[in-house]
Amino acid sequence: MAHDCYYITTPIYYVNAVPHIGNAYTTVCCDVLARFHRQLGQEVLFATGTDEHALKVREVAEGLGMTPLAYVDTMEPKFKQQWASLEIAFDDYIRTPEKRHVEMVQKVFKKLLDSGDIYLGSYEGWYCVSDETFFTKTEVTDERCPNPECRKPLSWVKEENYFFRLSKYQKPLLEYMTSHAGWLKPEYRANEVIAFTRAGLKDQSVSRTNNGWGIPVPGDEKHVIYVWFDALLNYLTVAGYLSDDKKFARVWPPAVQMMGKDIFVRFHCTLWPAMLMALEVAVPDMLVGHGFWTVDGEKISKSKGNVVYATALIRELAELSGSPEDIAADAIRYFLLREVPFGSDGDFSKQALISRFNSDLANDLGNLLNRTLSMLHRYFGGEVPPGAKNNEELAHQADTLAKEVRAALDDIQFSKALEAIWEFVSSGNKYVEQNAPWALHREGKETELAEVLYNTLETARVVTVLIAPFMPSAATKMWRQLGLKGSPGSVNWEKDVRFGGLKSGTKCGSADPIFPRIDTAKSTLQSKDQKSEATKPLIQFDEFKKLDIRIARILNAEHVEGADKLLKLTVDTGENEPRTVVAGIAQHYQAETLPGRSIVLLANLAPAKIRGVESQGMLLAADVDGRAILLQPDQNEEAPPGAIVR
Ligand SMILES: [Zn+2]
Q1: How far apart are CA 433 and CA 601, in angstroms?
Q2: 251: buried, middle or exposed (CB in 10 Å: 19+, 13-18, 0-12)?
């Protein structure tokens, strides 16, 4: 669908807890898409906000001796601080107690009462205050909340309630879902929604007894409107529904609505589109449910003490790397979007963050720009030399890359876009290695030297445009170093992703590394694992004797599907049959170069399934800054497969 305006939303967050790094992820994802569409020259409306009418809010406020409104007012600055530190450039921030929202929600409620899609009925059943959800008798087995994350005692409630005729929309919803491939993303989650809808949709209670907090039901103030019904409608408020017809016509429907998988199926893919159908308003173009983050392999929870907040993490990373906070924020944004394929669950660890920082940003990206700029200053006084021709191969790659990045972002595949950009970064670095400008200089080959530096800088320029939505501050600094005016976030995208934009005579800035390499030996940003490694207890020889460590020879190496770090190795261990071992070395060793190499293997580790492949043993390697360095027997001696290491 063609849009005048690219409207993108995060869910509005529960106001009682500032989002941690895992749920901040939604907002970062939306920010990247918003920035990308601004780059394309589109009008963008990027909205986020807070859901403030929950019963819990009233309870917490009471506990603090405050009115609910005074309490939620104290939360707003905390949210805005998190978003500012993550460089989130939203266009609208909505809070549900705002007048514009309260009025719109009441108008919608009235409209649906008049059309008969909301009716007064009565309800009796189990209710969880914490989740603000009713459960049927069959769902409840022990008078506790069936939500495995909650399990709090339920209350039995009997009350007069308004209901939304959700059942009436089961059929139209199913028809829509099954005839609009790509409406729900990722695709595998769509099947879950279809199954849920097919199982039957019951009318949804949309009011609660009025306890003094919430939006009153128009004409019947004994009731307030159910917090979910109220919250979902924020997307219409922001778009100007029933208040600004011109704006609404331009903005609606949303291009993308993004959220975590927990509120995807039940609320955003069934209740919400059914509400829109009842209002005879178009449903959003795309609903997207992403996966969850764990920290060091564990679920994020206050009781585990592993909650990571953006502001604190940014400060820590900035201190450690010696870079400003906006650059640290960029690195965290990069990590979140690069580390896992979108949709899947991901694991956050500081060690993995530092490893990405050093390898992808300080090394790969740093080499491409800083090394080249240093040479430009040394050989040409910092000025782009005249008369250089485009390298056809790099120019062609840039064209393909722009298409790939655009397609990946249209398909909400952030890691795919970044992988493609980093392949281009590698091509640029390889081009420098192959052409060895330092040697050209030595040999006095000025024309060739000018050409190599020009093409490398041009590669860096194209990369800068493409990474700007992901890392806005770093891209701006790179842009300045390249001596360019304006900002990479507001370019003529179609033209500026093509090769040949850098003019001869451009005076480039100094070659200061934007992502200074983190010295991991001095690192205080250590994960729990590293700390425990440093204080490993002494063991007895008997315990060591239990380990079967031996030499093995690699017979074959191939990539594990869907895992960019893993290789599946077939190894000769001196036994009758070769073994399969999965090893996390794919980012540092190319599969083709491995067959024939000897490795050190822990052979009696209990087999484990890794990404569906059974690993029969563990390859031992040195861990240097998160890089796996293979160990090898003395080259001058013969250590055949099966030789024991002790
Ligand atoms: Zn519950």
Answers
A1: 34
A2: buried
Q: How far is the CA of 17 from the centre of ligand 1 (A)?
A: 16
Alpha helices in 365-505 (DSSP H): 366, 372-380, 392-410, 414-435, 437-442, 446-467, 472-481, 493-496
Q: Which run of H or E residues covers position 5?
A: strand 5-9
Distance 135 CA to ligand 1 centre (A): 10
**For residue 545, how many other CB atoms are within 10 A of its CB?**
9
Q: How far is the CA of 153 from the centre of ligand 1 (A)?
A: 8
- Pair 21, 81: CB distance under 8 Å: no
Ranges of H-type helices in 64-186: 68-85, 99-115, 170-179
How many angstroms separate the alpha carbon of residue 151 from the centre of ligand 1? Answer: 6
Query: Ligand 1 mean position to 152 CA, how many Å?
Result: 6
Q: What is the pLDDT of residues 577-614, one digit of tens each?
A: 788 999 988 878 888 888 888 899 999 988 888 888 88
SS (H, E, C) 481-540: HCCCCCCCCCCCHHHHCCCCCCCCCCECCCCCCCCCCCCCCCCCCCCHHHHHHHCCCCCC
Residue 437: other Cβ atoms inside 10 A: 24
19, 82 Cβ separation under 8 angstroms: yes
Q: Please tell me the distance between residue 162's alpha carbon and the centre of ligand 1 in angstroms.
A: 22
pLDDT tens track for 229-252: 999 999 999 999 999 999 999 999
What amino acid occupies position 208? R
